[in-house]
Design a protein that fits this description.
Helix content: 25-40%
Radius of gyration: 20 Å
Strand content: 5-15%
Number of strands: 2
Structural class: alpha+beta
Bound molecules: zinc ion
Order of helices and strands: EEHHH
């Protein structure tokens, strides 16, 4: 089943699945998703994929800021070799800062 397209992460307009023939390989079709809103200053589009599903999955990928902050903090903890209690305190602080706790 093909995943539904999320809106453009920058302007909120609908995303569009497009096809493009590779200029150097006639008949080779690739898929990508883009924002066609002329007022969207970022003109965002995915890379080219041979399957529609992969283009849609790339378009629909979103970063969760809380998750990103937690992953960053945990990587620092791992690299510093902190003890379990300190890990818990740091992770708790990240989630409190994000308003999750
Ligand atoms: Zn847009």
């Amino acid at each position: 089943m093909i995943e539904e397209l999320k809106p453009c992460p920058f302007c909120g307009e609908e995303g569009f699945l497009e096809k493009r023939e590779l200029p150097d390989r006639p008949g080779a079709i690739r898929f990508f998703v883009c924002c066609r809103n002329g007022a969207c200053h970022l003109k965002v589009e995915t890379s080219l994929y041979s399957e529609e599903e992969r283009a849609i999955a790339a378009w629909n990928m979103r970063t969760d800021p809380t998750r990103a902050a937690l992953v960053k903090a945990l990587k620092e903890i791992r690299d510093d070799g902190m003890d379990a209690r300190t890990c818990m305190v740091v992770a708790t602080n990240v989630l409190e800062d994000a308003g999750e706790l």
